[in-house]
Design goal:
It is a single chain. By secondary structure, the chain is of the alpha+beta class. It has four helices and nine strands; from the N terminus they run βββαααβββαβββ. The strands form two sheets. Strands 6-1-2-9-8-7 form a six-stranded antiparallel beta sheet, with helices on one face. A three-stranded antiparallel beta sheet has the order 3-4-5, with no helix packed on it. A hairpin with a 6-residue loop joins β1 and β2. α2 packs across α3. The chain is elongated and about 75 Å long. The two termini are 23 Å apart.
């Protein structure tokens, strides 16, 4: 099965009996703030823990205001940013004539100083929402981690010898010597090749 693909095995962080085989090529290194949670909502910079002007709970904005005050004067410490990271109270602060220059400074500061948290994830459509299968340890939203090498090798060796699945109503189950492999044509399983459960072809249905 899938001889032309580089395969990996992932395990749920919350239930070690929830195991999936995935195509390694589908796993991408992405910024955590570009991922989606289980409800299809974008993980924002605050949730991701980025050091960014978009994360209002970190110190970066205070650091930027201090630096900007040295360039644009004391009133800069009262600058307020909109969601696009542009000054929204320039006229109120008497800085309207320098608004373009200030916005360029803010943009450059973000580019130079921001640190974005990266993660490994499979981005997919589950039939209703954008979703991310985030693989990792401490990352916000990470639901999976890579299986240990011994377990992974055992599962993939057995997987390479099973018969091709025959689908019935969008699903198929193929039993091996120790594991069963559940295939699905439904979108909510788009992130994986199949689900793996313990149970051999010798077990009773």
């Amino acid at each position: 099965m899938c001889e032309d693909k580089d395969l990996r095995v992932i395990v749920s962080k919350w239930d070690d009996s929830e195991i999936y085989i995935i195509a390694a090529d589908n796993v991408k290194k992405v910024y955590l703030h570009d991922c989606y949670d289980q409800y299809g909502q974008k993980i924002d910079e605050d949730e991701a823990g980025d050091y960014s002007l978009k994360n209002r709970s970190c110190d970066m904005q205070a650091d930027m205001l201090q630096k900007g005050k040295e360039i644009f004067g004391k009133t800069f410490e009262d600058v307020e940013l909109d969601n696009s990271l542009e000054i929204e109270n320039a006229e109120e602060l008497g800085l309207k004539d320098r608004e373009e220059e200030i916005n360029a400074f803010i943009k450059q500061y973000e580019e130079d100083e921001a640190t974005y948290i990266e993660c490994e994830a499979i981005q997919y459509w589950d039939g209703q929402n954008n979703r991310s299968a985030i693989i990792g340890g401490v990352e916000e939203g990470a639901d999976y981690e890579y299986a240990g090498k011994e377990l992974e090798n055992e599962i993939l060796k057995e997987f390479s010898n099973i018969e091709s699945p025959e689908y019935n109503a969008g699903v198929a189950k193929v039993k091996g010597e120790k594991y069963s492999f559940m295939f699905s044509q439904y979108a909510n399983k788009n992130f994986c090749i199949c689900e793996v459960t313990e149970g051999s072809k010798d077990d009773e249905e």
